[in-house]
Amino acid sequence: MEKNFEIKIENTSNPSIIKFEANYFLTQHTSYEFDNIDQAKAAPLAQQLFYLPFVKKIYISQNFIAIDKYDIVSWEDVQDEVATQIQEYLNSGAPLILENESKAPKKTPITVYAESTPNPAVLKFVANKKLVGSVHEFKNIDQTTEAPLAKALFHFPFVKEIFIDENYISISKYDMAQWEEITLELREFIKSYLEDGKEVLTANAMVSKKESEEIADTSFEQLDDVSKEVVNIIEEYVKPAVASDGGNIMFDSYNPTTKVVKVILQGACSGCPSSTFTLKNGIENMLKEMLKGKVEFVEAING
Q1: Spatial distance between the Cα atoms of 295 and 289, rounded to a whole number of angstroms
Q2: Residue 24: which of 9, 7, 12 has the closest Cα?
Q3: What is the band of 241 on the pLDDT scale with cuts at 50, 70, 90?
Q4: What is the per-residue pLDDT across 272-284, written as a single tens digit (0 to 9) for each?
Q5: DSSP code of 243?
Q6: How does DSSP classify residue 251?
Q7: Most CB atoms closer than 10 Å: which of 22, 186, 289, 295?
């Protein structure tokens, strides 16, 4: 699938630096930093940008290009023009980095650590790099056609299900193995895979956060008023806590007659022994309190 790059302008804590975020990964877990045009010989786009008199330093990461500027201009006056220039270059198909001429790129070391979840059958492997732009869940190897990393992980006989979001992978195991026996092996495999610059997802599967939000917004506008309130409460109060536990929760439906809310649990939350308690004593009570008379029960479809 041909990539159609879009560039989003993001401010940073440093007013001199602007991030130009792409909707696809630009590099495979490799970062590049250039202080001047001579250092950018292996980076044609960076060289092109250095011809802009206000460009001081350029930093290329896996999903954005950050530019530090001199004070001769304000970003408000030039940022749109720079974003257009970057977008047009990326969509031209020209290489971002000339690998055969790049002798010593500055690499950001990959670290992966294992983190327990409330589900004893699921462990969360957290990386210091963004892995995906949106949630992806795989119940078996047949679903991994466009997910090379997930497919590779399913070759471990003890891997049951895989859930990937932002910078972590939640792995569900079969009872045949204990975590203390397999955690190090999985962690080292994921670390080596990422350091080798291999794809987590193919271009066909890469859905940007922006695209995901646009789809979600369209679906949201089609909901009734109570369902919208439920979605907002889940997004603000429930989802962050669930994500920290290596899982995800999504609104499925609301029945105004029975006053039942159905949700979908993914990752560590799916099949978790404590999920029923969480639903009843956490989410259900919260919705009943915040939407008095409108919600009576919360049910999980695959929890």
Answers
A1: 9
A2: 7
A3: confident
A4: 666 666 666 678 8
A5: H
A6: E
A7: 295
Residue type for 286, please? Answer: M
Using the structure block, give the residue that is written with the tokens 């271009």.
Answer: 203
CB atoms within 10 A of CB 101: 9
Contacts of 292 by beta carbon, 8 Å cutoff, 6+ apart: none
- Radius of gyration, alpha carbons of the chain: 22
Q: Which two tokens stand for residue 6?
A: 């879009």
Does the pTM exceed 0.85? no
Structure tokens at 49: 């940008």
13-49 as b/e, with b when 16 or more CB fall inside 10 Å?
Answer: eeeebbbbbbbebbbebbebebeebebbebbebbbbb
- Give, rounded to a whole angstrom, the gap between the first and last alpha carbons of the chain: 35
> What's the pLDDT tens digit per position in 65-119?
999 999 899 999 999 999 999 999 999 988 888 876 544 445 557 899 998 888 8
SS3 content of the chain, % helix, strand, coil (to 5): 35, 25, 45
The two structure tokens encoding residue 128: 């210091």
C-alpha 106: how far from its chain's center?
A: 23
Distance of CA 15 to the CA centre of its chain: 26
Phi, psi of 264 (to 5 degrees): -110, 125
Residue linked to tokens 């749109």: 80
3-state DSSP assignment of residue 262: strand
Tokens 């989410």 sit on residue: 283
pLDDT digits (tens, 9 = 90+) for 18-60: 999 988 888 876 778 888 988 888 899 999 999 999 999 999 9
